[in-house]
Amino acid sequence: xxxxxxxxxxxxxxxxxxxxxxxxxxxxxxxxxxxxxxxxxxxxxxxxxxxxxxxxxxxxxxxxxxxxxxxxxxxxxxxxxxxxxxxxxxxxxxxxxxxxxxxxxxxxxxxxxxxxxxxxxxxxxxxxxxxxxxxxxxxxxxxxxxxxxxxxxxxxxxxxxxxxxxxxxxx
Length: 171
What we know:
The chain is mainly α. The chain has a domain at 35-152. It has five helices and no strands. It has helices spanning 8-29, 34-56, 60-84, 89-116, 118-151. The longest helix has 34 residues, at 118-151.
């Protein structure tokens, strides 16, 4: 049987990723707000996936993931700013959105109770609240990804344009 070999640099990277995940979860849990905890966890995992895809891909796909990552970070900062300062311009824009979405979910809870039962109804309501809380971040991330992919331009390597050949073709 072959011995498994672990490289120290990769183990350190995994430890750093796990430590960052635990720190973010602890910070989210300290809010004691379940929709923020669920929404923040979803955003954090999505941004981690975007970082991984930006590192592992190339070309226009990398441009999309970098734009998605940038838009997601900007959207997250805007969301956090709106929550921290509700009297600011950003807070005044986001608070009515939250109130309307939370009211819609609360009004639909009796229907959930009749349809899937009270325990599952509470779980579905909390998940919907979390998703409603992160919708602005998802929209910003998607817009950033689409814009960066469009701005990266089209390159058709089969056309031969822009490709330097090592030797001239015979005439």
